[in-house]
Amino acid sequence: DAGVIQSPRHEVTEMGQEVTLRCKPISGHDYLFWYRQTMMRGLELLIYFNNNVPIDDSGMPEDRFSAKMPNASFSTLKIQPSEPRDSAVYFCASSFSPSGTSYEQYFGPGTRLTVT
Amino acid sequence: AQSVAQPEDQVNVAEGNPLTVKCTYSVSGNPYLFWYVQYPNRGLQFLLKYITGDNLVKGSYGFEAEFNKSQTSFHLKKPSALVSDSALYFCAVRGGFQKLVFGTGTRLLVSP
Predict the structure, then answer these.
(1) How many Å lie between the alpha carbon of A50 and the closest alpha carbon of chain B?
(2) Mean pLDDT, 10 residues at a time, chain B of 112 residues
């Protein structure tokens, strides 16, 4: 099993540009999570999906952030326009919890985003 | 709101000595508690969880955690530390349906 795959691993962009982060969850998993990690705020849950449907996006910082999951094997997190304060490591995680009781999440390696 | 606190930013221990990384929790209802580890430039990895049952939970890589309801604690332990255990450790609690709320993390440094 390849685990959760994220791309790109590193992204450097200029303020105002659109940024798209990609995630491929573990095959068969029914939950997908997007997190952001910074030194100041720690690990924050941005949004999560169940069977491709967004369940809770209360952690999305503002309208500049959007996430989609068009199918069970792919999700994107988009920032438009990007700002320097968006610089962080963004993690995607997935889990298999058909009964809703697992809570064991598998994390990807992360995308380190730098906005200059 | 559900939350966990990790009171130590860093824990230093010599290789071969026992280690403890502390975590306390605040929840309404029964706690679901977790420990994750993060190695440099990697995502978090699941170590162990407490849902119900025995207060001593065994996990990956020789780690275990002790659930203490009266002290609202869930400390991570290992009898004999390895240099390779040096990493960032996160305690987490169920924060809602399928949501985890993570602590701020504790850096463990094991010296040779």
Answers:
(1) 9
(2) 93 98 92 93 91 90 95 97 96 86 95 96
